Amino acid sequence: MSINPADLRRVNVFEKASDEDLKIIAQGSIERSIEEGNFFFFQGDPADYAYILVAGRAKLLQTNPSGQQVNLRTINAWQMFGALGAVREAATYPASAQALEDCNALAVKSTTLKELIKDRPYLSIGLMNLMTDYIQEMQERYRELATEKVERRIARVLLRLTAQMGIKGEHNTIELGFTRKELSEMAGTTLFTVSRILSEWERLGLVEAGRERVVILQPHELVVIAEELEK
Amino acid sequence: MSINPADLRRVNVFEKASDEDLKIIAQGSIERSIEEGNFFFFQGDPADYAYILVAGRAKLLQTNPSGQQVNLRTINAWQMFGALGAVREAATYPASAQALEDCNALAVKSTTLKELIKDRPYLSIGLMNLMTDYIQEMQERYRELATEKVERRIARVLLRLTAQMGIKGEHNTIELGFTRKELSEMAGTTLFTVSRILSEWERLGLVEAGRERVVILQPHELVVIAEELEK
DNA sequence: GGACTTCTTTGCGCTATCGCAAAGAAGCAG
DNA sequence: CTGCTTCTTTGCGATAGCGCAAAGAAGTCC
After folding, report:
1. Secondary structure of residue B69 in the 3-state scheme
2. Hey, where are the domains in chain A?
3. Would you call A134 and B129 a contact, using CB atoms and an 8 Å cutoff?
4. Chain A contact for B27, CB < 8 A?
5. CA of B200 vs C1' of D29, distance in Å?
6. At B19, phi and psi to the nearest 5?
7. Which of A37, A186, B36, B38 has a CA that sits 20 to 30 A from residue A160's CA?
8. Given a cut of 90, is residue B153 above it in pLDDT?
9. Do A139 and B62 touch (CB under 8 A)?
10. What is the sign, positive or negative, of the torsion defined by CA atoms of A184, A190, A193, A199?
């Protein structure tokens, strides 16, 4: 089950790559399967590979000295992650990457990318786009965490997830498959608080909360909670 | 008081630029003086220029709908900021940039940079280094905000500032010129809390707190507060 | 030197959010 | 079906940090 080089065009960064380049990348890379819960790499490991997620879902996270986790990003298929080794000398991953489901990924040697970057502007530009996107998201989330109340942050998390990966049901409902713990790590709060707020929203008919599952019944109302000036 | 192209090499991103390129950049750019308190640009403005701070200090900040501010980054001389327009099409600044002191800066047209990037790998790599640095810092700060107590965050802010721009005094003391408000915006808290904690630290002899001024008397003790596992 | 402005400190009450504990679903394994 | 594991809910304190208000420094301007 080898990967077709042409499939790599589904990765934003390689959108404009030549067939030639895709071949180089495909050949200079290894396939890795990571089971749910296992790690692609840990914070602090030498950043020798950049990854392209082919199947499954993963997350980037940081852990603080006492073990608390923070979710930095959720990664879906055909997204690239761990790419900073392609740029920096002797880089180490600044975060860990863990499989949320069983995953298949392509591991591209950082050195290969580093070589390619030298004379393929489309690649640098693609990577920079990736980075600026991410910077913007982080800045926004940072501000939210600093200034917004939990309820609003949770609403935002759900909306962001909706945009990224929501599965549409009937009547505009959107289903998300996350545990309370995962949601709390994304919102920078505790699973208890998430649970309480979801219960509250359920009472109001905004969502339907199940085990590892949230169905958004009234997306618009969530937007109101997320954006509204005075509560 | 025009800028000497060779000075541009003090900017990390241009470290490896040819004299030729520096000239292009110097010529294709405008000098702007911004008085203390005024803005280089606002969040949402079209990102037509990237800036290089020549003199003074500035900050990048975001404002939420109800006017609360968050400090994203402090910018010192010879640092580049607002560069994302060099990469993205029709980009708008994701944050505002405000002068903390009277500033002189060089404004480089985004289009100029965009042209240059196409066939100067050193430039892309320089920019990517800038971005990855920033991403790492933001990730770290995000995690701090999500998981650490205020006291620790304030300690970190002081230490970070120390590394970036502390003025060394006698006996290993370090002087920082910031208001409580500014510090609070960097730590993601309120000026009251910063004031209280600085008072506390002053009582303990760790710092000396003055108007728009903090002198760190015992840097090591601050590190302990910032890193220590159990309090 | 006085009047103003800006920044800082501190007391006080408040509340959003945490954190534990215990019990209740839901799914899975044999 | 039964028991086990994992996830969720909810009650009940506890508290860290907020936010206001008022007063106290420290500069600045004329």
Report:
1. strand
2. 5-145, 149-227
3. no
4. no
5. 34
6. -55, -40
7. A37
8. yes
9. yes
10. positive
pLDDT of residue A216: 94
Q: How far is B94 from chain A (nearest CA, A)?
A: 6
Q: Do B132 and A72 touch (CB under 8 A)?
A: no
Q: Which of A125, A143, A144 sits opposite B117 (nearest CB)?
A: A125
Give the pLDDT confidence of A150-166 residue by residue, as tens digits: 999 999 999 999 988 76
Distance B179 CA to D3 C1' (A): 62
| C-alpha closest to that of A49 among A85, A13, A9 | A85
In tens, the pLDDT along B85-115 reads 888 888 999 999 999 888 999 999 999 999 9
Architecture of the domain delimited by A149-227:
Orthogonal Bundle (1.10)
pTM: 0.93
Across chain A, how many H-helices and E-strands are there? 7, 12
Query: In the CATH scheme, what is the code of domain A5-145?
Result: 2.60.120.10
Q: Which two tokens stand for residue B15?
A: 């470290």
**B129, B123 Cβ separation under 8 angstroms:** no
A208-215: long-range contacts (C-beta < 8 A, 24 or more apart)? Answer: A212/A177, A212/A178, A212/A179, A213/A175, A213/A176, A213/A177, A213/A178, A214/A158, A214/A175, A214/A176, A214/A178, A214/A183, A215/A169, A215/A173, A215/A174, A215/A175, A215/A176
Q: Give the separation between CA B220 and CA B148, rounded to whole angstroms.
A: 19
Retrieve residue A205's tokens: 């008919």
Give A-chain residues touching B147 at CB under 8 angstroms.
64, 68, 70, 188
Please determine, for residue A231, whether its predicted confidence score (pLDDT) is greater than 60: no
Q: Which amino acid is at A3?
A: I
Structure tokens at A64: 């603080």
Which residues lie across from B174 on neighbouring strands? B168, B216
Which B-chain residues 176-195 have CB contacts (< 8 A) with chain A?
A: 188
Taking the CA of residue B129 and the nearest CA in chain A, the distance in Å comes to: 7
* Structure confidence at residue B230 (pLDDT): 52
Task: Give the distance from residue A126's alpha carbon to the nearest chain B alpha carbon, in angstroms.
Answer: 9
